[in-house]
Amino acid sequence: MSSKRSVGSIVPTRTVLEGGGFKVRRPAAMGSLMSPFLLLDEMGPVDYAPGEAVGAPWHPHRGFETVTYLLSGEMEHEDSAGSKGVLTPGDVQWMTAGKGIIHSELPTKKMMDEGGLMHGFQIWVNLPAKDKMMNPRYQDISASESPIAIKDGVWARVVAGECLGVESSIDTVIPITYVHVKMEKYSVLDKNLDSELNGMIYVFKGAVTIENKIVSDGSLAILSKGSEVSISANEESEFLILAGPEIGEPIARYGPFVMNTREEIIQAIEDYQNGILA
Fold first, then answer.
1. Cα–chain center distance at 88
2. How many other CB atoms are found less than 10 A from the CB of residue 130?
3. pLDDT in tens, 106-144
4. Is-contact 118 76, C-beta < 8 A?
5. Distances in Å between the alpha carbon of 264 and those of 5, 61, 250, 271?
6. What residue ranges define each of the domains in the chain, with the CATH number in brackets?
7. From CA 105, how far away is CA 120, in angstroms rounded?
């Protein structure tokens, strides 16, 4: 028998500067609330004039995954494993840092020359201790390869997991649900979520109701336990559905490194300084 998830708490967002100085909207206290997600950054939306666009120059990671999903604009990725790619609207780049990788995410030449709207998301996904030192890997999923479901006023891009009977082809280390949803006013989405997974909804346009609780633009709703969430759109709305397992292990975190112990963080810093991180 299915049980409905409700809103356990609502976390507001704050605006901070990241990378080379781009603005992101970030839920406060994200990492302490929601395993396995360490970070959720809404990049923009920012309308850049020519020559103004910024990104994140070369920087290291170890012990987790970064997932970049672009809604508007263009970015180019390059990393120390030899992977390169350009993100355009609807594209996803799922980078598993594992034992170590150094990468950059910068606006394309076209974006720098012409300017334009930049909007997207970057999410950090923690890895269990047994996977933190796995070999790095990079998955580049174009908009045309990222499956979309449309039904009764609901549009959903299934970045990872399943929605409305459509499944993503992305290979995740741990079970992850990541769905971008657009809903027409008064439409309803009933989404099954494995009862073993933590779940949340991040609204970035409009407002929705979940079990009589309104979640509006710029709010992160942490969901209670259950096997299904029912979402009603109060107006034209847009949000992310995220779900994943409770890892339940100690977290030692220092900037771009996320490990289990202080000693492992020190080792990561030393490896980076000695040029052997990646």
1. 16
2. 9
3. 999 999 999 999 999 999 999 999 999 999 998 999 999
4. no
5. 37, 13, 12, 10
6. 7-273 (2.60.120.10)
7. 13
Instruction: Give 273's DSSP letter.
Output: H
CB atoms within 10 A of CB 148: 15
Torsion angle in degrees (nearest 10) through CA of 259, 175, 151, 237? -20
User: The tokens 């992977």 sit on which residue?
Assistant: 83
24: Cβ contacts below 8 Å, ≥ 6 apart = 15, 16, 17, 18, 41, 42, 43, 44, 122
Residue 17: enclosing H or E segment and its boundaries?
strand 7-18
- The pLDDT assigned to 185 comes to 97
**69 pLDDT more than 90:** yes
Please tell me whether residue 206 adopts helix, strand or coil conformation.
coil
Distance, CA of 59 to chain centre? 18
> What is the reported pLDDT for 1?
64
pLDDT of residue 44: 86
How far from chain centre, in Å, is Cα 163? 17
Residues 6+ apart with CB under 8 A from 37: 30, 31, 123, 124, 125, 126, 200, 242, 244
Which two tokens mark 161? 């997991």
Q: How confident is the model at residue 80 (pLDDT cuts 50, 70, 90)?
A: confident
Tokens for 269, please give them: 């810093």
In DSSP notation, 86-152 reads EE-TT-EEEEE-TT-EEEEEEE-HHHHHH-EEEEEEEEEEE--GGGTTSPPEEEEE-TTTS-EEEET
